[in-house]
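Example 9 (inverse folding). The structure is encoded as follows.
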């Protein structure tokens, strides 16, 4: 059974489509498809209590995992152990797509849905940002959700 709430969100050049919320999986995991604009991604961050895994569906990405840079493309898998500093950037000329599984998923559910902008069902294109993101608001949501976002120099 699926929840009746928005399933698609936009955040920092990423279009996040929830295929499963934690409440739909016995609070064990969440599954999110992430369509990422070229040059966009996720800033360096870490969080305790949540494992995170990415499967590259399309495009090319550069991941930072525990200080190591990993270049990946379609069919590759990236595991981010609990508490590890990580980030990713879409390096292809076209948007890339990732399938992201978070376990148990509650922290990511909270962060993505509260920091992101809910989009209409069926949205497939990444919105063009018409203003700079509200970084202090995003940081506040991250902190309240249990995520620490690092300045690039701190990663």
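The amino acid assigned to each position is listed next.
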């Amino acid at each position: 059974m699926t929840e009746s709430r928005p399933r698609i969100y936009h955040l920092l050049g990423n279009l996040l489509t929830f295929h499963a919320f934690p409440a739909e999986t016995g609070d064990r995991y969440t599954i999110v498809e992430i369509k990422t604009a070229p040059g966009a991604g996720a800033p360096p961050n870490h969080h305790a209590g949540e494992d995170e895994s990415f499967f590259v569906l399309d495009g090319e990405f550069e991941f930072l995992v525990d200080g190591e840079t990993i270049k990946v493309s379609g069919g590759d898998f990236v595991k981010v152990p609990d508490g590890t500093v990580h980030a990713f950037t879409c390096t292809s000329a076209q948007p890339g797509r990732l399938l992201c599984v978070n376990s148990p998923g509650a922290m990511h559910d909270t962060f993505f849905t509260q920091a992101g902008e809910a989009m209409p069902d069926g949205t497939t294109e990444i919105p063009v940002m018409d203003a700079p993101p509200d970084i202090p608001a995003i940081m506040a949501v991250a902190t309240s959700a249990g995520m620490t976002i690092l300045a690039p120099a701190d990663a």
